TrEMBL record:
Keywords: Phosphopantetheine, Phosphoprotein. Transmembrane segments: none annotated. GO terms for molecular function: phosphopantetheine binding. InterPro entries: ACP-like_sf, PKS_PP-bd, PP-bd_ACP, Ppantetheine_attach_site. It comes from Actinophytocola xanthii. This is Carrier domain-containing protein. Pfam families: PP-binding (PF00550).
Length: 75
């Protein structure tokens, strides 16, 4: 699986949705702070790098989380 597909899979699982679009907003889909932490932890466990939670609270979109994850993996 690619990093993007891993993130999308966890996004869908945590939020209980079947599809994920980059414009989707975490909190608009029923996410809350505890789910945000769970999502980040799942992603970190699979990717093996620390992922910032900030994009979920500032922008809230899947696209922002994907971009932040790409940055974190490039370090």
């Amino acid at each position: 699986m690619t990093p993007e597909s891993i993130i999308r899979t966890h996004w869908c699982a945590v939020l209980g949705v079947s599809e994920a679009d980059p414009e989707d907003r975490f909190f608009e889909l029923g996410g809350h702070s505890l789910l945000a932490i769970e999502l980040i932890q799942r992603i970190e466990d699979d990717l093996g790098v620390p992922i910032p939670v900030d994009p979920l609270f500032t922008d809230g979109s899947l696209g922002a989380l994907l971009a932040a994850s790409e940055e974190a993996m490039a370090r």
